[in-house]
Amino acid sequence: MGFSFYLLLLFVDLALCSSWLQGQTLPHMTSDVNEVSGKSFDYIVVGGGTAGCPLAATLSEKFSVLLVERGSSPYGNPLVLETKNYGLSLLRTDKYTSVAQSFISNDGVPNLRGRVLGGSSAINGGFYSRASEDFVQKVGWDKEVVMGAYQWVESRIVFKPELTPWQYVAEFSFLEAGIFPYNGFSLEHIEGTKVGGSVFDEWGRRHTSADLLEAGNPNNITVLLNATVKNVIFREKGNRNETIARGIRFIQSDGSSSQTYDAYLNQPENSCSWGDVILAAGSLGSPQILLLSGIGPQKHLKKFNIQLAADLKGVGKGMKDNPGIALLADSKPKNFTPEPPKVVGIADHFKIIIEAGILPISLNATVMPIAAKLAFPESEGKLELNSTDPRENPSVTFNYLAKEKDWARCVKLGQLLERVVRSESIAFFLGLERKNELMSTEDELRKLCKKNVRTFYHYHGGCSVGSVVDKDYRVYGVKGLRVVDGSTFLESPGTNPMATLLMLGRYQGIKILEDRN
């Protein structure tokens, strides 16, 4: 992308953004580490992403909160906020400052993680769909509080989308392929074809989790941008030798300096009323920070000369990523406007999720993938440190399709994809002759799965409930430290985890406030 073109987009969007923000009350945001260094807060939330922002907003209703985000603000960035620029931010990645940070798993599959206030909700497709009732019951959440937390999110940043011609075609093609029933517009996770919610509004503007900060008390929130947490600071208490979180140590994200800075939890005389350091840094960030803080398998920490704080062997374990396959509706690139998915097919007893969008491959070329994922993979891997620099990606392995059940399900997924891609609806829309050749054999589909397996960016695990954190998301063996994000999940909820992560931030904030009362 030409630099002058980017500046033009930025200028136009700044004008729009200043108008849109009139009347909105966002908390104080700063990239000056000296404004925060040495200060104390009731709660420190590490990661201003999908779960971190609603969590900070909720806690701020009664307490002071420091929200630390390693990336920048999304406001004024047209590549983040405008539907017409959907996907372009994923093409512009760098080592320290881009809103999307790229990484390649040890499986050789390229992947991305959010690095901006709003996290992945600022760079994803914006499709909003709740978790199933079975998921909520399985994890043991309070159903009434869950529903209230979903509605709190939805009333602020979720919209009923208008379908484009391509999304109507996707809808018809899913039905042609037998993904029934047709459920119309729904936020629920139900089998069949449906239109989901969207964080893009009717004017084509993205609303991220950062917008939820407006629902908090702006006088109680400080947002520190462009700062990467290096580790949690602990203190020893009395003769019981308890490990207690005292604060965080952080550095500037831009790589310009390795100087460290500290921020602390308030320590009132009544120790029962102390707050927490809460990690909401995502499925790569949270286990990485725990390891850098000395919480994890002792043998692994010893390799990096990290002092042991808690020997938790589950940190970094149980890493899963939903394997996906994509087929192009047309092999020739187009020059269509990029378009996020708004319709989803939920098939094979919730085991297969399928969608269609229009993705940019350059500034003036797009492709039209029909993509599907396996909802409940059995294969899992692990996360380990690459170095002690928190700005570097950790080493992660997902072991895609390592289990035979995943292979068998991928074959079924491939068969469904072929039926969709060869539908009359897509052929008519693209002006192509409908393909009537024989469907691929099972062996051919297995080769397709092996060669073309890709991520859906719904990776999770590394700090699982029952292994690293308890049912209240407190880290085992450490006081004053919690993890609240997708790293705690044993499976990815709903069609995608965004809605449930937004809800989880609100939900856990409510639960923490109730406990304090």
TrEMBL record:
Highest taxon of source: Eukaryota
Pfam family, one: GMC_oxred_C
InterPro entries noted in UniProt: FAD/NAD-bd_sf (IPR036188), GMC_Oxidoreductase-Related (IPR051871), GMC_OxRdtase (IPR012132), GMC_OxRdtase_N (IPR000172), GMC_OxRtase_C (IPR007867)
Keywords: FAD, Flavoprotein, Signal
Co-factor requirement: FAD
Residue stretches making up the Glucose-methanol-choline oxidoreductase N-terminal domain: 114-137, 282-296
SUPFAM superfamilies tied to this protein: FAD-linked reductases, C-terminal domain, FAD/NAD(P)-binding domain
Signal peptide feature range: 1-17
The family this protein is said to belong to: Belongs to the GMC oxidoreductase family.
Name of the molecule in the record: Protein HOTHEAD-like
Species this chain originates from: Prunus mume
